[in-house]
């Protein structure tokens, strides 16, 4: 009996060791294979998006810079999945500081993803509802500044939310080999408002306005303007549909994450207890490049040039992939 109890402990040599999550070997292997597959696909596919937008000059547009920011966050999510794979049985084998940093990175990347979605919604709003002034209002330099501010503010804000956990790593662990952080009630409420409720409200409201604007105003404006044509209108509407799919999938995948991690009083977050919602969030990061491949011809062309190593040839950055 004692041997069976020790087998259930993460560190049998310590009496205060955290107890492993009990699963059958087949289920554990299935989870391991699933997470590993999602991680590899997420990293590879988003790396293709990053290389495509970064390398080909034709893709250096404000909208694609925002997609690049989203791809970077998704790429980092894929790398973070390594820690979730380590936590399959609930045991944390790294130091307490790494546990705190893991949650800090997770929170920061998530906030940056949500912020990028807000920027994408604003970009589409201006493109559809005010197309005549889009090129002057939305420039590459402004897009870069917005992306930079989004990432910096996410890092600073989440650093403040988890500051006690980073300063005193492991202070809330009750057992050896456990990985939890505690978000204070007030900090959790502020995080919920600024990182989820507020941005999601803007995104949902923006989508409603975009569709009304597209149906009622855009066609008339573009038909009357000499510098625009019906092809431009169709292109903008196609981009709107693609972004709408990305945003819808994002909301479906991220809502359970926030519902689990930011509810109640002092939210005690166990890395093993949020495995399902984390996997759902990770899966969204894998889906985004597949959505691009389905709706964006430039991404399919870029992938072909990357896989065939055509991008290594001189002047390949000038290729017309649009």
TrEMBL record:
Pfam families: 7tm_1. It is a multi-pass membrane protein. SUPFAM superfamilies: Family A G protein-coupled receptor-like (SSF81321). One of its GO terms (molecular function) is trace-amine receptor activity. The chain crosses the membrane at residues 29-54, 66-88, 100-122, 142-162, 174-197, 242-263, 275-295. It is found in: Cell membrane. It comes from the Eukaryota. SMART domains: 7TM_GPCR_Srsx. Residues 45-292 form the G-protein coupled receptors family 1 profile domain. Keywords: Cell membrane, G-protein coupled receptor, Membrane, Receptor, Transducer, Transmembrane, Transmembrane helix. One of its GO terms (cellular component) is plasma membrane. PANTHER family: HISTAMINE RECEPTOR-RELATED G-PROTEIN COUPLED RECEPTOR, TRACE AMINE ASSOCIATED RECEPTOR 19P-RELATED. Belongs to the G-protein coupled receptor 1 family. This is G-protein coupled receptors family 1 profile domain-containing protein. The lineage of its organism: Eukaryota, Metazoa, Chordata, Craniata, Vertebrata.
């Amino acid at each position: 009996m004692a041997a069976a109890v020790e087998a259930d402990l993460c560190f049998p040599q310590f009496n205060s060791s955290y107890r492993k999550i009990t699963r059958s070997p087949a289920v554990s292997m299935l989870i391991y294979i699933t997470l590993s597959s999602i991680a590899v696909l997420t990293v590879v596919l988003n790396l293709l998006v990053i290389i495509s937008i970064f390398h080909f000059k034709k893709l250096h547009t404000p909208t694609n810079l925002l997609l690049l920011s989203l791809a970077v966050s998704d790429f980092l999510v894929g790398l973070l999945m390594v820690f979730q794979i380590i936590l399959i049985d609930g045991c944390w084998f790294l130091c307490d500081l790494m546990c705190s940093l893991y949650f800090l990175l997770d929170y920061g990347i998530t906030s940056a993803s949500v912020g990028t979605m807000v920027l994408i919604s604003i970009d589409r709003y201006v493109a559809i509802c005010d197309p005549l002034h889009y090129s002057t209002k939305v420039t590459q330099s402004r897009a870069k500044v917005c992306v930079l501010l989004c990432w910096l503010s996410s890092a600073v804000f989440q650093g403040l939310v988890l500051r006690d956990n980073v300063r005193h790593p492991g202070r809330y662990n009750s057992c050896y080999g456990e990985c939890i952080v505690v978000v204070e009630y007030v900090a959790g409420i502020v995080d919920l408002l600024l990182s989820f409720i507020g941005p999601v409200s803007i995104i949902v409201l923006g989508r409603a306005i975009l569709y009304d604007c597209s149906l009622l105003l855009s066609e008339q404006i573009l038909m009357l303007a000499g510098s625009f044509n019906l092809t431009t209108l169709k292109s903008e509407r196609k981009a709107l549909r693609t972004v709408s799919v990305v945003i819808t999938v994002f909301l479906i995948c991220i809502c359970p994450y926030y519902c689990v991690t930011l509810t109640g009083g002092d939210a005690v977050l166990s890395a093993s207890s949020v495995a399902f919602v984390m996997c759902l969030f990770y899966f969204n990061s894998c889906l985004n490049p597949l959505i691009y491949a389905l709706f964006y011809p430039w991404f399919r062309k870029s992938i072909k040039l990357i896989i065939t190593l055509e991008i290594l040839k001189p002047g390949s950055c000038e290729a017309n992939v649009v």
